[in-house]
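Lecture 7 notes: from sequence to structure.
We start with the chain below.
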Amino acid sequence: MNAIPPPAPRSQAQTLSRLLGLGAAGPMPLMAAVETGLSLAALDRVAHSLAPGDRSFVYRLVSRPTLMRRRRAHANAKRSAEARLSAAEGARLARLAAVWGLALEAWGSEAEARRFMFETHPMLEGRAPIDVVLESELGRPVVEGILGRLIHGSAA
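Predicted structure tokens for the same chain:
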């Protein structure tokens, strides 16, 4: 009897593209999408997935006044850059979405992944992974390292 092989694992770019609601087919189109400005829908999609009960979570990624201005520009059907995230905001969102995707892979459920992201962790000196990731690009590999150890069966 021939066993059906498991589905091929998604690449990080595929996972990130799915989480952001993009059709990017690889890392370069994904980079281009971030640089030209991700949509407000991508921001809302990740924020709702990661913190579904927290309507103010988006303001950890984009300030309230900036986001309100962008939402007004979007509602007025402007096709300008003002209705999209800046490259820096998009990079921050993509950084968070990449770690969120890895947390989902490590924990296997949104509830468990969410708990990991928001609870303090001893390997992060008592800080929550979400805070470490959002603080700077330097926090991303630290949290990814913990998640990688969980995925591959090491102590984390």
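Points to note: The helical segments are 12-20, 27-36, 40-50, 64-75, 87-107, 110-118, 129-135, 139-151. Residues 17 and 84 are 17 Å apart (CA to CA).
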